[in-house]
């Protein structure tokens, strides 16, 4: 006796059964959403965050003078934010960039609380959440980065 079975499709699958095609489509949508999030964060870090520091906008200059870091600190933070924004878009650097920007946001939170009385302290904390998601979701690229670095050494 031989049994013949029809292939399981999304329409014929019993409730609660995940079909490979559905999982693939869901995974594809998740990758697209994650990539969109990365682009949005890269745009945020490049334009409204890094640009005012790099062009020495008066509002940025005033904040860094209050910190006592002056223009050197302002340009350094602006360059780090811009580098992180670009690295968020480079596949092999995505996870590392998200971790580095998260560390920068921890520093921003501490500065907001210690120097600026917590006026905008929630912003860096809010930004850490999607950065942590990106760092975790793209963690597989870290092994690729290590291989590239070892090959160059």
TrEMBL record:
Keywords: Membrane, Transmembrane, Transmembrane helix
GO CC terms: membrane
Bilayer topology: Multi-pass membrane protein
UniProt keyword annotation of Signal present: no
InterPro entries reported for this sequence: DoxX
Subcellular location: Membrane
TM helices/strands, residue ranges: 36-55, 67-89, 96-115, 121-137
Keyword Transmembrane: yes
The protein's name: Putative membrane protein
Source species: Streptomyces violarus
């Amino acid at each position: 006796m031989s049994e013949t079975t029809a292939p399981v499709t999304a329409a014929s699958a019993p409730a609660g059964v995940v079909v490979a095609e559905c999982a693939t489509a869901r995974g594809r949508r998740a990758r697209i959403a994650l990539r969109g999030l990365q682009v949005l964060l890269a745009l945020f870090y490049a334009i409204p965050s890094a640009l005012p520091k790099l062009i020495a906008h008066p509002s940025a200059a005033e904040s860094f003078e209050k910190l006592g870091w002056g223009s050197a600190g302002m340009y350094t933070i602006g360059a780090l934010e811009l580098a992180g924004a670009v690295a968020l878009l480079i596949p092999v650097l995505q996870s590392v960039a998200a971790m580095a920007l998260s560390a920068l946001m921890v520093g921003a939170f501490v500065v907001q609380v210690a120097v600026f009385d917590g006026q905008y302290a929630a912003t860096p904390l809010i930004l850490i959440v999607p950065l942590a998601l990106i760092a975790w979701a793209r963690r597989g690229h870290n092994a690729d980065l290590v291989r590239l670095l070892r090959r160059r050494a």
